[in-house]
Design brief:
Layout: H1 3-7, E1 14-15, E2 18-26, E3 30-37, E4 42-49, H2 58-74, E5 89-91, E6 94-100, H3 109-112, H4 116-119
Antiparallel strand pairs: 1-2, 2-3, 3-4, 4-6, 5-6
């Protein structure tokens, strides 16, 4: 994936071995893509940092530090309502992390019953 692609808002076709199949969202620090792992035939999400921030800027370094800190913390968590971090990698000098995809998982039981406010009546 090139910096020019992400800055222009284009979706990359692949990040590492993962085939990008769509966009899940963008935030202040990065982007999240829907992806497919062809080796183990699994749908997942790939998170990357923003590439439109100049590499020499303090903001770029802060995003990288935050990205790795989030991965270290998330890697210690395990709960049915939290997506799972599978790995962390780096391609063409930018980090990425594959996560379990919430859309590929079953909804938790509470969400099938509707909003809490409608159950109180």
């Amino acid at each position: 994936m090139s910096e020019k692609m992400q800055a222009a808002g284009e979706v990359p076709s692949a990040i590492g071995r993962y085939q990008i199949t769509g966009t899940l969202g963008f935030g202040a620090m990065g982007a999240v893509y829907r992806a497919f792992d062809p080796l183990i035939k699994r749908t997942l999400a790939i998170k990357t940092i923003r590439l439109d921030i100049p590499r020499q800027s303090p903001l770029h370094q802060a995003c990288i530090e935050r990205f790795y800190q989030e991965a270290r913390i998330s890697g210690t968590l395990s709960h049915p309502s939290i997506v799972t971090l599978f790995d962390i990698g780096e391609r063409t000098a930018f980090p990425f992390s594959p996560w379990s995809s919430w859309t590929a998982r079953r909804s938790p039981p509470c969400s099938r019953r509707g909003p809490a406010s409608s159950r109180r009546r």
